[in-house]
């Protein structure tokens, strides 16, 4: 295994992370904050750590990257950047205790949006900016960014790309992996910029617009406000709702839309299912709210659809406490925790396409039982999905629920009540953020035991890398020559 090249890439990742940290100084200056030295130490340590790894591994470097090195690089990159991203919280004394800072860091980078902060608005603006920026860095993926800007990673770059990019597969928009990564990041930046403009048109200041756009397009959910989006106007809520929906769509479909390939968009089975889930669930919950609560039709539909879109896309912004809804409403919200956004989006969860394949597989098997002599195939987007892929998808779903069950048991042994344990685990794996029990939409994760915070942090990374990229490192075959 080419460990030297793995370390070399990790060094480059830390250098890029350190450069992102340097942008914190802009807000230190704008708001005249006393956090300069905290950010300075964070930047210096991160940059020096990255340069040390890069320079130390550059001697006799052989730039070759196989599949095993890719899995190792991606997994360790996420652990390393999470560890270093916690430094601004520590050195500015915004968060006490490394376990809390690490949890907030992992939650940001994996776009989970679960927080341990009790009073968000008391935190310095430069730290709140960094907190939201970690969403934006992790949303599209820092490895995807590295592949886009470093030509040397043409060798094995696609393996890295596949190991970090979410979903069953990432369709290559061009023959060159680096070009694909650049186009995806271009769309990502473009959507962020457009949302900032729309939010500012609604009288949201630039700082809040930028932070909320980072959290929306990355489907993260960190807000610089204690009440998330609840205190903003209906216009702001509709804008954020619309961009959450866009962020939950496969980014290749955005590219096809720009290129005018509308048939590929309108004929996409996952997109149709994704939109159907949002529309049907939103309408049902809105009707439940209208019939049971003393609110207007517009407010009921806005609250219902905002929470539905936020949970489906695993963003985690809130405008209403769904735990106070009638039982039918919050149960439907709970079921959405297992859906997730689209493959190739910044959203988390199981992913809509896997559920589409699973249900189609059940239907095909029933038909085969009724017509044993017929040749019946499973198709998605007009293309045949072979039995091996179907088996892998069903296996992933089973592994997902088994991991969630094991995580819940571990959290219960750490003296977390059963509801909170299950909710926090499912939320962490699906990168949702707010959950149920003691970690509901108006609460936070501060009360989780220190050991539990590290467990949930691991589950966040595990869910962000879609289980197998991490789990494969724990197999004996991975380490055999």
Automatic annotation (TrEMBL):
Is Iron found in the keyword set?
no
The yes or no answer to whether the keyword Cell inner membrane is present is yes
| Gene Ontology CC: one annotated term | plasma membrane
Matching InterPro entries, A to Z? Answer: Cat_transpt, TrkH
Q: What compartments host this protein?
A: Cell inner membrane
- State the Pfam families in the record: TrkH
Membrane disposition: Multi-pass membrane protein
Q: What is its main location?
A: membrane
The residues that cross the membrane are 9-30, 36-59, 71-91, 133-153, 184-202, 235-253, 274-293, 330-353, 393-414, 454-476
An example of a GO molecular function for this protein is: potassium:chloride symporter activity
The UniProt record gives the binding positions of K(+) as 111-112, 220, 315, 432
Source taxon at top rank: Bacteria
Keywords, alphabetical: Cell inner membrane, Cell membrane, Ion transport, Membrane, Metal-binding, Potassium, Potassium transport, Transmembrane, Transmembrane helix, Transport
Similarity field: Belongs to the TrkH potassium transport family.
Name used for this protein in its record: Potassium transporter
Tell me the classification of the organism that encodes this protein. Bacteria, Pseudomonadati, Bacteroidota, Bacteroidia, Marinilabiliales
């Amino acid at each position: 295994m080419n460990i030297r090249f793995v370390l070399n890439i990790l060094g480059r990742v830390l250098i890029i992370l350190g450069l992102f940290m340097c942008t914190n100084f802009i807000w230190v200056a704008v708001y005249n904050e006393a956090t300069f030295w905290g950010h300075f130490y964070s930047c210096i340590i991160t940059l020096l750590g990255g340069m040390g790894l890069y320079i130390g591994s550059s001697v006799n470097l052989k730039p070759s990257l196989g599949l095993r090195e890719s899995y190792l690089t991606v997994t360790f990159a996420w652990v390393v950047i999470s560890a270093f991203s916690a430094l601004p919280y520590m050195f500015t004394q915004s968060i006490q205790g490394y376990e809390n800072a690490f949890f907030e860091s992992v939650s940001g980078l994996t776009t989970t949006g679960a927080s341990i902060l009790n009073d968000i608005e008391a935190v310095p603006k430069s730290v709140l900016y960094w907190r939201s920026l970690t969403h934006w860095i992790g949303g599209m993926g820092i490895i995807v960014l590295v592949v886009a800007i470093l030509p040397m990673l043409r060798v094995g770059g696609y393996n890295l790309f596949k190991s970090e990019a979410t979903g069953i597969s990432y369709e290559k928009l061009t023959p060159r992996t680096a070009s694909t990564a650049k186009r995806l990041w271009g769309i990502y930046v473009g959507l962020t910029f457009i949302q900032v403009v729309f939010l500012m048109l609604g009288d949201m200041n630039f700082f809040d617009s930028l932070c909320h756009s980072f959290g929306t397009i990355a489907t993260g959910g960190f807000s610089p406000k204690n009440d998330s989006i609840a205190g903003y106007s209906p216009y702001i809520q509709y804008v954020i709702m619309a961009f959450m929906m866009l962020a939950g769509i496969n980014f290749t479909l955005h590219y096809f839309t720009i290129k005018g390939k509308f048939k590929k968009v309108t004929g996409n089975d996952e997109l149709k299912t994704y939109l159907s889930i949002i529309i049907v669930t939103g309408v049902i919950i809105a009707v439940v709210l209208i019939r049971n609560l003393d609110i207007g039709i517009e407010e009921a539909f806005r609250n219902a659809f905002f929470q539905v879109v936020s949970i489906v896309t695993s963003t985690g912004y809130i405008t209403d406490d769904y735990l106070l809804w009638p039982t039918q409403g919050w149960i439907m919200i709970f079921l959405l925790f297992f859906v997730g956004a689209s493959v190739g989006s910044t959203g988390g969860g199981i992913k809509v396409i896997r559920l589409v394949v699973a249900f189609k597989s059940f239907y095909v098997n029933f038909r085969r039982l009724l017509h044993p002599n017929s040749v019946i195939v499973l198709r998605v987007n007009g293309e045949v999905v072979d039995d091996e892929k179907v088996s892998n998808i069903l296996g992933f779903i089973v592994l997902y629920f088994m991991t969630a069950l094991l995580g819940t048991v571990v959290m219960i042994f750490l003296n977390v009540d059963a509801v909170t344990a299950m909710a926090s685990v499912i939320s962490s794996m699906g990168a949702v953020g707010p959950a149920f029990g003691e970690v509901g939409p108006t609460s936070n994760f501060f009360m989780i035991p220190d050991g539990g915070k590290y467990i949930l942090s691991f589950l966040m990374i595990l869910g962000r890398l879609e289980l197998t990229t991490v789990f494969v490192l724990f197999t004996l075959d991975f380490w055999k020559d």
